[in-house]
Amino acid sequence: MSDRDLALVLSGGGMNGLLLELGFLRRIRESPLWDRVGWIYGTSAGALSGVMATLDRLEDMEAFVLELRPEETFRPNRLWQTPLNGLHDYVLPETIAERLAPIEELAGLLGAAVGCSRAVTMAGWRPHTDQVGQTGTKIAPEIYIACGISGATQHMAGCKGAKRILAINADREAPILQSADYAVIGDLHEVVPAISAAIRAARSG
After folding, report:
1. pTM for this one?
2. Dist. CA 169–CA 176, nearest whole Å
3. Which residues contact 86 (CB under 8 A, 6 or more apart)?
4. Rounded to whole angstroms, how far apart are CA atoms 20 and 12?
């Protein structure tokens, strides 16, 4: 295993984000964990500026800010990779892609689209257009399969148009279960592949 086996995801925006990341990263930089950090993902310009300021890369920060397009302020699509200490185009970590793959597969079998929560878009794993919620996309499918969704009010405002909701959640107390028409209590990483396997078996039989 690589010595640099940790990744940080920073999401603060604007000047507040820059100041928050400065304080946080300085603490991390002074701790033993710093030598294990391999990637720093910034989902906002403020977050990445904080990274560069902490690493004393002021020339890089100036160039980054001057080249920043308005639409990239909260989605700069960049990462800082140590020990290379430079900006790189955003690359989805293989481990995240692997965890999303079963959901993508199920969606493909059903001819469905994949949505996500605000936390997923803030982490930069999917675009904001995929976010289901009050400040994201409002959907009205025949059935909404909510995988690991807690059921926050903001998210439920985006999927209340669904005719049916199937919730897959390991937490028996998850708020979404109160709104779901159907529920499976279990680990989505086990349940979702099982559903896909059942669909393939039914179609091949």
Report:
1. 0.59
2. 9
3. 60, 80
4. 7
